[in-house]
Amino acid sequence: MPEPVLIAGGEARGKLAFVFPGGGSQYVGMGQDVYDRYPSARRVFEEADQVLGFCLSGLCFEGPEAELTDTVNAQPATVTTSAALLAVLRDRFGPELSPDIAAGHSTGQYTALLAAGALDLRSGVPLVRERGRLMKEAGDRSTGAMTAVLGMGIGALEAICEEVGEVWVSNDNAPGQIVLAGTTEALRRASQLARRRGARKVIPLAVNIASHSPLMASATASLGRIMSEVTLRRPQVPVVVNTTASPMSSPEDLRQELVRHLTSRVRWAESVRTMIAAGVRTFVEIGPKDVLSGLIRRIDRNVRVVSIGTVACIEALEVGT
Predict the structure, then answer these.
(1) How far apart (Å, rounded) are the C-alpha atoms in residues 154 and 299?
(2) Please, which pLDDT band fits residue 211 given cuts at 50, 70 and 90?
(3) Three-class SS of residue 102?
(4) Is 212 a known active-site residue?
(5) From 106, 191, 271, 307, active-site residue
(6) Taking 90 as the threshold, does the pLDDT of residue 122 lie above it?
(7) 20 to 30 A Cα–Cα from 149, which one of 57, 93, 129, 173?
(8) 251, 276, 270, 261: which is closest to 119 by C-alpha?
């Protein structure tokens, strides 16, 4: 059992941010312990199964891994698991653990909107599954890939992208942790240049689509049509969005953001700094794994980061003075 984790209340805590992970955080078995333990989590998984018309929960709990990793499934699975964990936190702690601000990385942006009351689960889960399908189709039309570059500044990588062409910074995750997306050949050349110019590591990612790059452009029109039929409400707390790293509250602006998001950079490092500048001193990552927690610590070691991804994490959490 982990050591107890105390989140102070009131001014001692400073502002509190809820943050939600996106693609790549999924794993077989995620969410099963909270499903088994908490009725509030079970209700979320059962609702997702019902609206999708198939057993997404079984895919989360039992796999197979290749099917869960398919972006068509990984996106709704990650959002549903994060939403189930969020439901448990709300059930256990109520308003005592309420965020002042929210954000999500890539697909996690949809969960952030759900947490802020701008989107509901019945609309959100089918929406992200359709988003995954459209991204997969775009990847089939414009074959691409993604590569993580460690130990190199964003300015130097932007210069390489400009020099090579057909490759872009897709995720500015943290200092020295940046992801490129582009065509296979362009990524190969950009990776060679990055190694020559001082990158510590260049790691091809196990994906065959170039997320958050212009190679996703063919998906935007269809997602825009779908978004026009989805009800979005004004968030109850500010949501810092990926493309601008600033809070956004207008439902129409958010609608456009979610479409533009497909082809635009995830400005995660800037988003975290925006939240810190707004007074956030504690970040609670809600979702499978703890990828965002590691990134936030690299961005600023002076803030508090708490990861909530399992029953053990929830049971260790204490809130109050």
Answers:
(1) 14
(2) very high
(3) strand
(4) yes
(5) 106
(6) yes
(7) 129
(8) 251
CA distance 306 to 315: 13
Cβ neighbours, 10 Å, residue 214: 17
| Torsion angle (degrees, nearest 10) of CA 235, 241, 247, 251 | -40
3-state per-residue secondary structure call for 19-53: EECCCCCCCCCCCHHHHHHCHHHHHHHHHHHHHHC
Residue 105 annotated among the catalytic residues of the structure: no
| Among 25, 170, 212, 264, the one annotated catalytic | 212
pLDDT at 297: 97
- Sheet arrangement for strand 201-204: 167-174, 177-182, 145-150, 201-204
Instruction: Write out pLDDT tens, residues 28-69.
Output: 999 999 999 999 999 999 999 999 999 999 999 999 999 999
